[in-house]
Amino acid sequence: MNQKIRTILTGATGMVGEGVLYECLQSDLVESILIIGREPYGMTHPKLKEIIVKNINELHEIESQIIGYNACFFCLGVSSVGIKEEAFSKLTYDLTLNFAKVLCRLNPDMTFCYISGAGTDSSEKGKIMWARVKGKTENDLRKLPFKAVYNFRPGYMQPTNGLKNTLKYYHYISWMYPMLRMLFPNMVCTLAELGQAMINTVAKGFERPTFEVKEIVSQSKQKL
To answer: In angstroms, rounded to a whole number, what is the distance separating the alpha carbons of residues 173 and 180?
Structure first.
């Protein structure tokens, strides 16, 4: 890839999005990052711009500001705990596809990277609600005429030290990371590896559209 990465990023106020953002800010492959979100992330950096939108499903007012990007790191998501399928689908499938369709129309040469989850059900027919919804989201993203769409399915992610949006319960379980990595290598990676894998995939591509944990770890180590 001769061009530097100019990426749109969502979910920066969450743990995963912030971790991916951190890797983008450190990477020489990334030229600029545009955060789109409902709340300000609250950081200044030469690479960084930010647009606050009241409703992320309504992007028509900012379309002129989101042209010219060649990547999207879609890190926005919600937990399925305590949510019925209809509501979870609106917050996951509908929101993601609506956002992606706008970007695809404005930036057809874009590579779209979607963070899904380990155990996602590509058949869309399984018993686990969130896995079906995520599977449908993955499948329908791939139907859009982007340059490329990649779905990342992390399991446990060891957070990056020093970031402000790390979920509180990680402070109690992070000490288990070395043991978890040894016992469950196909389910455990670091948040840094996820971000690096996404960057490397935009820069270099990948032969398959889906990244399980072992592919995330492997792709994060690619030398470009």
So the answer is: 10
